[in-house]
């Protein structure tokens, strides 16, 4: 129980890849462009401005990029600039350390079309647009722990 005027601290655990040192977060994507909510693994990327569904997840989820509007400007990815599509009005659900679902809503995220012939990784990108919704991103490499906190 919190005292008056004190907000409860919410922690969302992320996972550290011991080989690369990268932090990943499990999320559930909710959008009207999919028949049901879908699980995603998000790489927390402090260098990415926009949360992005990469080509591997786009193919796995069955998103039809032909039905999504194109982003007006190309997107920078490893290897150069590519065209991206936009997925609007999305929600991401995260399970906190107490087992409760926490929701964050974004007006738009980018989607990379698998038809562009990219590497098709098995994760997508959590950009600063979503990361900044949290108060703190804590990485403790010594104890193999990472958290998003609010």
The amount of helix comes to: under 10%
Strand content is 35-45%
Q: Tell me the name of the CATH class.
A: Mainly Beta
Number of individual domains: 1
CATH architecture annotation name: Beta Barrel
What is the helix tally? 2
Oligomerization state:
single chain
Q: How many runs of DSSP E, i.e. beta strands? A: 11
What is the CA-based Rg, rounded? 16 Å
Distance between the termini: 16 Å
User: What structural category arises from helix and sheet content?
Assistant: mainly beta
Instruction: Please mark out the parts with pLDDT under 50 across 5 or more consecutive residues, or reply none.
Output: 1-7
Profile the largest sheet: 9 strands, mixed
Give the CATH superfamily. Answer: Acid Proteases
Order of helices and strands: EEEEHEEEEEHEE
By CATH, the topology is: Cathepsin D, subunit A, domain 1
Overall mean confidence score, pLDDT? 89
Shape: globular
Features:
disordered N terminus, 11 strands, globular, Cathepsin D, subunit A, domain 1, 43% strand, mainly beta
Describe the structure.
With 150 residues, the chain is mostly beta strands. It has two helices and eleven strands. The protein has helices at 55-61, 128-131; strands at residues 11-16, 23-30, 38-44, 52-53, 75-77, 80-82, 85-95, 101-111, 124-126, 136-140, 145-149. Strands 1, 2, 3, 4, 7, 8, 9, 10 and 11 form a nine-stranded mixed sheet that branches. The radius of gyration is 16 Å and the shape is globular. Residues 1-7 have low confidence and may be disordered.
């Amino acid at each position: 129980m919190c005292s008056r005027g004190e907000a409860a601290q919410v922690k969302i655990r992320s996972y550290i890849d011991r080989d690369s040192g990268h932090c990943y977060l499990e999320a559930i994507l909710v959008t009207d462009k999919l028949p049901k909510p879908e699980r995603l693994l998000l790489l927390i990327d402090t260098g990415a401005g926009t949360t992005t569904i990469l080509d591997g997840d786009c193919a796995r989820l069955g998103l039809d990029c032909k039905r999504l509007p194109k982003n007006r400007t190309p997107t920078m990815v490893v290897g150069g600039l590519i065209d991206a599509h936009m997925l609007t009005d999305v929600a991401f659900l995260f399970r906190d350390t107490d087992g409760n679902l926490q929701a964050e809503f974004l007006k738009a995220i980018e989607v990379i079309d698998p038809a562009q012939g990219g590497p098709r990784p098995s994760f997508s990108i959590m950009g600063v647009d979503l990361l900044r919704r949290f108060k703190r991103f804590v990485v403790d490499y010594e104890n193999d722990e990472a958290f998003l906190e609010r």
